[in-house]
Amino acid sequence: MIKEEGLSELRLAVFASGSGSNLQAIIDAIKEGKLEARINLVVSDKIDAFALERAQKEGISTVYINRKDFSERGDFINRLLAIMDEYRVNFIVLAGYMKKVPTELVRKFTGRMLNIHPALVPAFCGKGYYGMKVHQAVVDYGVKVTGVTVHLVDEEYDNGAIVAQCTVKVMDDDTAESLAERVLEYEHAIYPETIQLFAADRVDIRGRKTYIKDN
Ligand code: GRF
Questions:
Q1: What mean pLDDT is predicted for residues 195-199?
Q2: What CATH number does the domain containing 123 carry?
Q3: Whose CA is nearest to atom 2 of ligand 1?
Q4: How many structural domains does the chain have?
């Protein structure tokens, strides 16, 4: 269906480096009719990422691409951009992608690239705060509440306009692992819901703020 304004149907590339449980949540939401989008491609910088297996099991195309396999940065960028064209991607979802996305790709997908961060941005985020390090820092600091942030991607780590956030309680006996597990459950709910806001053309982006329009 082509909409009168905004994007036509979301044709996603999901970038993932690891287990891909967020990818799975997106796949499931699409299957359940809760998310109006197609996943045209799953991209990974890790050849053995479980996310790639999950995609293949669903018959979704996968591409492994890593900067280290290219001697020239320009060749890597051109290949990455060409892949996005080849698979007719019009929206990028970072789901546990551990590499910084090249500026050229960020610029091409301005307002059309999301990331999920397992804490309440602007706390416990930025360079060095990834994976279990985020949850360890949260536990070590002693905060009582953490959460999940879904934000647009710009050229700095975890810095783009925030689209959605939710809070998650930190328990007295939490370890980084137990907290990560609890936070992930919230991620699996909030990420598909937030992508659906874009599918329904409900996100108004004004500078570094977003406003969710009514249906
Ligand atoms: C999630 O906690 C996500 O917020 C972070 O990396 C983790 C990826 O988990 N960026 P998964 O690969 O989706 O299971």
A1: 98
A2: 3.40.50.170
A3: 118
A4: 2
